[in-house]
Give the backbone structure.
Amino acid sequence: MDTTRDLLVALAHRYAFSDLGDLAGDEEVAAVCEFGHRILSLDAEDFNVEARAVPAELRRRARACHMPQTPREQPRGALESLRPAYGLLLEVIAIRWHRRELSPMIAAVHIASEYLPLLAFEPQLGHAGDPGRWPDGLSAEGSRFGVIGDRDCDHTKSEQSATNRTLRVAGEPPEGWRAYFDRQHSQLAGALAVCMAACRNPCTAMNWIDPPARSGLGTRARSALAFADTPLVRLRHAAPVGHGFGVPSPEEVLDAWERSRAVLDKNEVGSAALKDDGFPLPGLPSLFSAVADAPITPSTLVKGVSEHVVRLLGRRG
């Protein structure tokens, strides 16, 4: 029995791409492992989607989760639709749970919470928040969207800055575009949800949405905002007391999720979190699907990378 190969295969099955890439002694395997490591690390700015050692189908699926790095980059990836990215987030959350890597798991949950309002808006927008494709209605007469310093607007100062920037960033150079996505796009997502579901003094910014669709979108946006404030997401910012440098135990994660499900159970969208769908955090895929108004299930992208690495190792044997 080839014990070295068996070890490498075991690392591949465990998605330990970084260690495997260092140990394999094979450039092609190392290149695929680098690709897998970036996917698992959710490095959406650089999934290394041009890595020629990776099968085209895996690169295509990664590209669907990739965030464009220039205003005109094609394809639009996660700005076209966030559904593939949320499938990947679910797959990564499950992998991190099974590996008991709870700090990066909660980080992935936090990322999901930041952009969840855009998932809710996608059916109405026809895209996932691409700044080059905002509807003209956002800036219609009477709209306070993107107006900095308007005291009648319920947006925070940082949200007003983000909404103002998003309306013009598509005309900026790549450096400005990347800076916006690094610092402000998640604020923009929350601001849209506030407009739809939490504004105490509505303006005309959401009037471009057909009235029959507003009620459902309002419920989905409200649930997205509620998820961002659940005990599970707040674990990301928990004080390092009682569990060592802020890393929660599995019991703490499950307890936080159960309390989060109770918080979310306020409408037909939030109550989807109560479903037992077989996920490590039961109901999380169902919640994302309800917010998206479309099926969202864990992807098999990371698994596909692992299986390809195993095939490469088999050829060496």
